[in-house]
């Protein structure tokens, strides 16, 4: 079985590659990346690295030839129209390369009424795959737990959790746990064709999250949110990203980010790492 991973030099892509190397032989792994030089360390381990720009169909076709399972990790490009164009070309390439199965790595903020600025992309993906001739599996991830650890020193300094979520809740999962589940999906054909939502075992209200962050940092962090406008302005880097980011917390305020499932355990037979435990292992005090 040849597993082909796109976006393998990104944060999640590297976790997927590392997990794949634990489960299958290097010769059964292909990394399709825009910049092969960034994946040189994997090539040294016997993994095939192919140049593949989502926007160049011919390049993608060549990279995807011989693929049994394609794990498609979208780019972090915005607005949605950019990702949609990339995915459209990738579907065309996958069809022409006769890819046997596609695992699309998506996000929970894909509901029709979700205000998240990237939601249109995820809505497009499911419909586009349904209208293709590809066999596919849809994966929806909860919010990444990973960014909380490097963000925590700023919150300690401020003494407040800033997310404009109101009474909403958010479920979290680490990239490591996501990667473990997705690679298990890739190597278990009996699970192909489903729709899986990967979450932790609990959705946190913002006061609950503030308490977890306080425990981990040994500091007092209270839930004292910014306004939507203030948050978007504060975190507007790169330019225009603040509006995208804050729309995610508006979605959470509308109770659209609090899904909790047992899909991770169904796939792996294990439980996800508890958020507080994860942060304890990954938080570094200044």
UniProtKB/TrEMBL annotation:
A Pfam family: NmrA
Segments passing through the bilayer: none
InterPro entries: NAD(P)-bd_dom_sf, NmrA-like, NmrA-type_oxidoreductase
Domain NmrA-like: 3-251
Name of the protein in question: NAD(P)-dependent oxidoreductase
